[in-house]
Amino acid sequence: MTSTTSKAAAAPAALNDETILSVRDLRTHFYTRDGVVRAVDGVTFDLARGETLCIVGESGCGKSVTALSILGLIPPKAGKIVGGSIRFDGTELTTESESTMRRIRGNRISMIFQEPMTSLNPVLTVGEQISESLRIHQRLDRRAAWDRAIEMLALVRIADPKRRAGEYPHQLSGGMRQRVMIAMALACNPQVLVADEPTTALDVTIQAQILNLMLELKDRLGTAIILITHDLGVVAETAQRVIVMYAGRMVEEAPVAELLSHPKHPYTRGLIGSIPRRKPGAPRGRTRGRLQEISGLVPSLREAIPGCAFAPRCGFATARCTTEQPPFEAHGPRHYAACWEVARVEAKSLSEPVGSEA
Predict the structure, then answer these.
(1) How far is CA 203 from CA 117, 213, 228, 314, in A?
(2) What is the mean pLDDT of each run of 10 residues along the chain (358 residues)?
(3) pLDDT given at position 13
């Protein structure tokens, strides 16, 4: 019989020895002229020391806002965390002062942002930008910080690191700028690294190099990684566990192999179905048939959603789905989903479209 234990009830109330970060019922809202945007609406998860956790979903689902909430980077005039808890290594971050958060950010928790050209300072050399965080957080003198910056550039496999340390961001390629961002993020040996779409602007070959580099450095330094992406191919190659988000809510969580082979939420099925696949024996580049699509639009987050947020786009939806929000509960070992119709979803082949049922 399928277990239906609630994730909220099953989750530990406090950090254990293996947990470095614990997020409980996180809710982050933004305030606009058109109303309140519920960007993150009840996110709960744990991150183990040394683990790689992927958060996946389409644009606007709340992935990046979850990350910014963890680091305390929500612009105070635009939005705020309105509920929930974020505990990092025993410290409740939602109640900490900005001065305390500045000591944690870039030091114990670091972040790699989506586009390095907008994150790096164009008027400072890359060596100065890396050494600045070392002087602030590690109290190194200028010479020691500069030497450490060169070491970090060598660690991320930038050729001729001494020369590159004296160059400006515009003098580097996109892949090299992303390596600089990784070097900067890892310079202080953080316990948690948040990587927000770190390979989006890079070509496929450089993407693979950057991801392999991140995982290699994680193994060397013991850093836990939260990898935010919309690419399930990246998830399959990098993660131990994956969380799927939709419209600010978590809809599924499982070990990566289990989720990709046995998805229990229709939205996850839709994401997996949209991956191009080659026919066995077909010429290189030839995909099998037409790609599946998820019809419809993401709902507005300015209005309260009484039931399942995915219901208007879901072929498995019933009247109950539009009026009652499904609980996020266990449907197998370490496998959670928020869906009233898990049994029907499991009975369908992955090759069938999400909207195949009325």
Answers:
(1) 16, 15, 18, 33
(2) 48 60 97 93 95 93 95 93 96 94 93 81 95 93 95 91 95 90 90 88 79 84 91 88 96 96 94 74 59 83 92 94 95 96 87 58
(3) 37
| Per-residue confidence (pLDDT) for residue 358, from 0 to 100 | 39
Distance CA 207, CA 237 (A): 12
**Among all chains, which residue has been given the structure tokens 């683990």?**
51
Pairing of strands 249-255, 241-246: antiparallel
Residue 117 confidence (pLDDT): 73
Tokens found for residue 335: 């496998």
Nearest to 47 by CA among 200, 213, 164, 195: 195
Q: How many CA atoms lie within 13 A of 145 on its CB side?
A: 19
Rounded to whole angstroms, the Cα distance separating 35 from 32 reads 5
Q: If you search the block for the tokens 């039931």, which residue do you land on?
A: 307
Contacts of 119 (CB under 8 A, 6+ apart): 113, 181
Q: Is 247 left (phi over 0), alpha (psi -120 to 50) or beta?
A: left
How many CB atoms are located within 10 Å of the residue 277 CB?
12
Burial 60-99 (b: 16+ CB within 10 A, else e): bbbbbbbbbbbbbebeeeebebeebbbbbbeeebbebeee
Q: How many CA atoms lie within 13 A of 324 on its CB side?
A: 9
CA 300, CA 319: separation in Å to the nearest integer?
Answer: 20
